[in-house]
């Protein structure tokens, strides 16, 4: 009889607010996993209990909640009590915090805001683990049938660390986890050895690299916890600006003993206001075109992050006498930073959890629970749809379509002819990257492809770069210091002789690229598509971006793919073996 362990981030009181997901393990192996946003269709699924993703996990295994042996929650809510002092201080001293907490104008005095202070104290004094776990139990009882299995809680950053250690190829090394905040932790250095993770150093809230980057993101017109990748993409357009750098470093310190609390104390909004005061500039009201100063500011923030993380990694590699590094937490989605870590002379082996943000906590919790190496060659953990089911959807919607005898070859020919293709195959990916199963594909050879996808398909700023998928065996030829990169979470320089071959997938400012390397074992159909494209064009690379419109989650179902196909400037849509074309 199988042993089932269900892991999920609840996003209820005390368990975080964004990016819930659910994963089910059968006899220690991941059998299904999906982020709640892919089912609720609300990006990041903030404050949504993951009932849909839990249901999907159970349905895939053909079981009910009562058949699960144990539930894991990747938070220790009792640790939230450590936040009490900083939150009460904010309520008492910060008028803007009053207004945001109470939802009304405030005099800024303690006596005038007794209710707000009381609510805050109650919230964090009441954050006892047993009470909060009971809230989760009640939600499960309301949504599902049968008794609720035993529930265990695991600390947020330890779950992140597990996700960067147990799938890695090394047995001993340094693991660094960094994000906005998890319980009271913002950055944690871990010693990984003999299957155990030992906490070596903790940078506590609000001393957070993630929150600093989030404040900078809002300052430049994007939303924190959503637009950080766009600021990373903007940074190479900038350059070192001594005035910006000097002003920033007058209030924040980098290095192993970094301190950014002058900007990160309070809410993100407080940090934005501090940046406005510091630089004598108002925040950008909306994202779009950027001035030289704004590009230089993005460059400075990115450089500060990279240099600070590099200093920490160097110091603890020396201390641990190791050359192996694991990275996780939302900050580890910063592939430019990852590149700098990879290139350190002191680093021989690196593993970056592909679902590095909170959407991967459920994976990490399951790995932490069993504390043994877990091979994770792909993140294709979500739902798939048979050809017959796809055809039923096409018939139901009275669409014209054709069955392809060789979908890979036919799509490769369309790509070589400059067409923009929606590609819907196999199991849905976990994580923020489309990896060849829910992808929009284009010819990588010309900048015109990039511009068309930005303008007519993704409906986003034209300066933003795209990434490639390439045959793994071609990586040495196309990339400097190449190594397998199946998850699009590492950045590389491109070899000089091939830059002209893949103009659409180079960052326009620095000619780097963030590739997915593809081998036949990981994704046979996608591998063959790229191989067919190479046979036609001589280039073993395609432009690959996620199959979603601007501001939406990646598509999950055939119906969603069809809707986006007709709402975007795509030329054709491949759904399994079925092909739709626009006139």
Q: What does this 3D model show about the protein?
A:
The protein has 583 residues and is of the alpha/beta class. It folds into three domains: 1-167 and 354-376, ATPase, nucleotide binding domain (Nucleotidyltransferase, domain 5); 170-352, Nucleotidyltransferase, domain 5, CATH 3.30.420; 387-581, DHBP synthase, CATH 3.90.870.20. The strands form four sheets. It has an eight-stranded mixed sheet, sandwiched between helices. The protein has a five-stranded mixed sheet with strand order 3-2-1-4-5, sandwiched between helices. Helix 8 crosses helix 12 (268-279). The radius of gyration is 24 Å and the shape is globular.
Radius of gyration (CA) equals 24 Å
- Characterize the overall form: globular
CATH class value of the largest domain: Alpha Beta
Number of helices: 21
**What is the share of helical residues?**
25-40%
**What does the main sheet amount to?**
8 strands, mixed
Task: Give the neighbour order of strands across the main sheet.
Answer: 11-20-19-12-13-18-14-17
Structural class: alpha/beta
* Extended strand count: 20
User: Within the CATH hierarchy, at the fold level, what is the topology of the largest domain?
Assistant: DHBP synthase
- The CATH H-level superfamily of the largest domain is Carbamoyltransferase, C-terminal domain
Strand content: 15-25%
Distance between the termini: 53 Å
Question: Low-confidence runs (pLDDT<50, min 5 residues)?
Answer: 101-112
Mean pLDDT: 93
CATH architecture of the largest domain: Alpha-Beta Complex
Quaternary structure type: single chain
């Amino acid at each position: 009889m199988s042993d089932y362990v269900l892991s999920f981030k609840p996003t209820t009181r005390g368990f975080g607010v964004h990016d819930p997901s659910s994963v089910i393990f059968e006899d220690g192996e991941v059998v299904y996993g999906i982020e709640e946003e892919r089912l609720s269709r609300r990006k990041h699924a903030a404050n949504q209990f993951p009932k849909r993703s839990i249901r999907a996990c159970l349905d895939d295994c053909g079981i009910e909640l009562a058949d699960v042996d144990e539930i894991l929650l990747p938070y220790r809510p009792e640790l939230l009590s450590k936040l009490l002092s900083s939150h009460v201080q904010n309520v008492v001293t910060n008028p803007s915090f009053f207004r945001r907490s109470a939802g009304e104008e405030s005099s800024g005095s303690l006596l005038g805001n007794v209710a707000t202070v009381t609510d805050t104290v109650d919230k964090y004094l009441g954050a006892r683990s047993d009470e909060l776990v009971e809230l989760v139990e009640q939600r499960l009882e309301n949504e599902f049938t049968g008794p609720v299995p035993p529930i265990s809680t695991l600390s947020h950053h330890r779950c992140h660390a597990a996700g960067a250690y147990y799938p890695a190829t090394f047995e001993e090394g340094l693991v660094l986890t960094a994000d906005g905040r998890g319980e009271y932790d913002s950055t944690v250095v871990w010693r990984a050895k003999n299957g155990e993770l030992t906490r070596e150093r903790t940078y506590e809230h609000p001393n957070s690299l993630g929150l600093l980057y989030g404040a900078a993101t809002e300052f430049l017109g994007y939303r924190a916890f959503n637009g950080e990748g766009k600021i990373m993409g903007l940074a190479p357009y900038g350059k070192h600006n001594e005035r910006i750098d000097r002003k920033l470093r007058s209030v924040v310190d980098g290095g192993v003993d970094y301190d950014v609390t002058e900007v990160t104390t309070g809410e993100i909004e407080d940090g934005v206001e501090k940046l406005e005061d510091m630089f004598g500039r108002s925040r950008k009201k909306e994202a779009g075109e950027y001035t030289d100063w704004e590009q230089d500011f993005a460059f400075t923030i990115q450089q500060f992050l990279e240099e600070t993380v590099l200093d920490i990694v160097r110091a603890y590699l020396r201390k641990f006498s190791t050359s192996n590094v694991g990275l996780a937490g939302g900050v580890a989605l910063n592939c430019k930073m990852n590149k700098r870590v990879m290139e350190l002379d002191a680093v021989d082996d690196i593993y970056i959890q592909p679902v590095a943000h909170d959407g991967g906590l459920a994976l990490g919790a399951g790995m932490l629970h069993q504390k043994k190496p877990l091979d994770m060659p792909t993140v294709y953990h979500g739902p798939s749809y048979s050809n017959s089911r796809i055809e039923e959807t096409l018939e139901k919607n009275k669409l014209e379509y054709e069955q392809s005898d060789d979908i890979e070859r036919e799509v490769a020919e369309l790509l070589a002819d400059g067409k923009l293709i929606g590609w819907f195959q196999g199991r849905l990916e976990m994580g923020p990257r489309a990896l060849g199963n829910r992808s929009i594909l284009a010819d990588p050879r010309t900048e015109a492809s990039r511009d068309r996808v930005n303008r007519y398909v993704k409906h986003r700023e034209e300066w933003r770069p795209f990434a490639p998928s390439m045959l793994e065996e071609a990586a040495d030829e196309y990339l400097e210091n190449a190594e397998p990169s199946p998850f699009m979470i590492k950045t590389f320089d491109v070899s000089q002789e091939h830059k002209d071959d893949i103009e659409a997938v180079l960052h326009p400012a620095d000619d780097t690229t963030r590739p997915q390397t593809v081998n036949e074992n990981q994704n046979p159909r996608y591998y063959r598509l790229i191989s067919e494209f190479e046979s036609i064009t001589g280039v073993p690379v395609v432009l690959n971006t996620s199959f979603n419109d601007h501001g939406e989650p990646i598509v999950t179902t055939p119906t969603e793919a069809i809707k986006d196909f007709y709402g975007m400037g795509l030329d054709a849509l491949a759904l399994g073996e079925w092909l739709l074309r626009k006139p």
